[in-house]
User: What shape does this take?
Amino acid sequence: MVRLGWLVALVAAAAVVVIAAAAPADAREGCGVPAAPSWTATEGAVWQWLCAGQLFDFNSEAQTVEENLDPHQPGGWDETRVLSSAFVEQLLDEPYAPVIDRHGIVLGGAWFPGGLDIHEAIIDFPLRCQYCRIAGMQAHDAVIDGTLDLQGSAIEGDLTLLGADLRSDLALMDGSVVSGLLNADRLRVAGSVFLRDGSRFADIRLLGAGIGGDLAVNRGSVVSGTLNADGLTVAGSVFLDVGSRFAGHPPARR
Assistant: This one.
């Protein structure tokens, strides 16, 4: 029993060394704000990087031994990639939000099996979750001072942006998928809305929305249901072409 205990301790110590070695010096030094006691070990490690102004990418060998996983395929996704909505919500408040880099929260390859709820949040920086798996996202009436970037991510349910205010762009491109309703009624976007590059959507609602830049649903994207944009105003251009499909219609051409 003594030998077994010694072996377990040795393995645990080696794991700590590996994790520490994987993090660059600035991430290890952090910003002086410790992780919350309620966070998991994974969430604490993510905060260590974000606190140092670094992105955290589960698909990067510098941060995890996991492979580059496809968010649209369930295989390989396990608890080592799991983050909670509560974790992100805490990052939007004291003492964490004031020390987050101006580039904001930048995550890659994270899994939110419980979904992500930031409704009515006031976020003073961009929010990026690229190539993530998210079991539905609630962001109605949220204010984001920057881009909401869900590039390549799989939203496994509804994406609700009802009445949200984005001070830059909305990016759902490079194969993003929203399997439920994309409800963006009364959405306000200072920049552009990108729903392009082979992304797939069921139903899209943009009733009464206002876009300061362009609306792009093109470059091979698919809307299998309806795109309802009654009352939509777009200050820039609207792109619904170049190989995209809408409710069973053939691909649009130039």
